[in-house]
Each structure stands twice: as C-alpha cells, then as structure tokens.
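Priority: low. Protein: Alpha-acetolactate decarboxylase. Input follows.
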Amino acid sequence: MPAFEPHELAGFRRWAHAILTHRRGREIYQTSTMGALLSGVYEGDVTIRELLRHGDFGLGTFNCLDGEMLVLDGVCYQLRSDGSATIADPEERTPFAAVTWFRPDRRIEISAPCDRAALKALIDQTLESTNLMVAVRVTGQFSSIHTRTVAEQHPPYRPFTEATQDQQEVTFTDVSGTLAGFRMPDYEQGIAVAGYHSHFIDTDRRHGGHTLDYRLVSGTVEIGIRSELHLSLQRTAQFLGAELDHDDLDGQIRQTEGG
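Result:
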C-alpha cells in the first residue's frame, strides 16, 4: 500500500471533513419510531451523550416517558410534568428522539400576533415543497403557550394512547422563549410525527413542555430544510418483540400529539 505524503494526507482530511460537514447539514438523525412509542416501547438503548453526537437541536422523550425532551444549542433539557425544565443527565436514555445540526436556510420576522394555525400556514407558504423535512425554531414573545407532559410510566407499560390520558397540562402566559421541532411530510406518519411537532422552553431555561397550542406576539422563525433521514432502530428485546402494525396509526398519533 503506497504511503501518503504529509500534504496529500492533509488534503484528504480536508476533503473528508468537507463531505461529512455538508452531509450532516442535510440530515436528521432519529432513534426508533413513533409507531414503536405508540406500542409502549418506552425503553431505548441510546444515551443522551450518544444522541448529542448526532445533532444540537431536536426533541424526543426519555426512558419510561420520564419527561419531554428538547435539545437546543447542544444542550438537552428534560421537561417534567410540573412544567419545570432541567439539564438532562448525559447517561439518561431515550426510546424516541430526533436531532439535527441546526443551520437555518431562511428566517421570517413576525411583528404581528398570530396563533399556531396561522404560523404553520405562514411557514408552509415559504416552503418550495412539503415533501422534505424541516427543522423549525421560533424564538419570541408569547401571550400564551399551552403545554403537556406525560407522567413517568412503569412496567407493565400501557400503550401511548392510554399513557397520555394522565398527562399534565400547563399554560404559560406572557412568556418569552423558544419553540423547537420539526415539520415532517405526511408520508412519514408512524416513522415520525407528520406535520408540526414542537416542544417549548422559556428564556430562563426553567420551564417548558410539549406544545399543544400557542399565540405568538412577535419573534423570529428560523427554518432548516433537511433531505436525509438517518433512522437508527433499537435492538432491545422490547422493540424486537413489539407489534408495530397499527390499525389507526394516523388517528392515534393525532390523539397523542395534539395534532
């Protein structure tokens, strides 16, 4: 095998780094599927430390549904059922999460109040296609944010539609903070959550939850288009033995995610 000259090796490293950087800027990394979560697969094998090697922005949940997850600026937050937010232990594990390296392709300034439906419609109008994945970050002032968090579950695990019946809902008023999440194409329902899925955390990083509804007073919307999905499936006994063929997949996800 021929040896590389030092300048050739340095050139190869720069080329490889450029290729990897370009690719990861188009990719969403996801562990497990929404369909598995519906079936009660609440224990995953990916640690938060490992998850953060794949992105600095995203959302998900924790093992046993012990809080909603929000990843923002490379920090993973655990949003609990009382509405509080804390930095997650890097050795915690997740049964479902999606992250990306957030680099916005465009920004939209919002200067007039709008509700959730109006903001979603506005974002959709700026997209060249709804067949690609979109990372969405909304930073601003909200007159109200209605959130939920599912209570921690214990074996034997109930299906997700039953677990969410005991969810705790909290409404924050006159609060500044950030919504972080994704807009996924309709054809990905079951793999992910089709449409808009976001979690909220306030500016002080002390409170938040899964977003059910909101009214934005003013702020900035940043969107990043993604065309590649890296889907990492679990090899746990729970996942391997789960029944993942759901009769009413779309209806169950809309019920549990508030869509």
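Residues 6-257 form a domain with the 60s Ribosomal Protein L30; Chain: A; fold (CATH 3.30.1330.80). Helices lie at 6-24, 34-38, 48-51, 116-126, 160-163, 237-240, 249-257.
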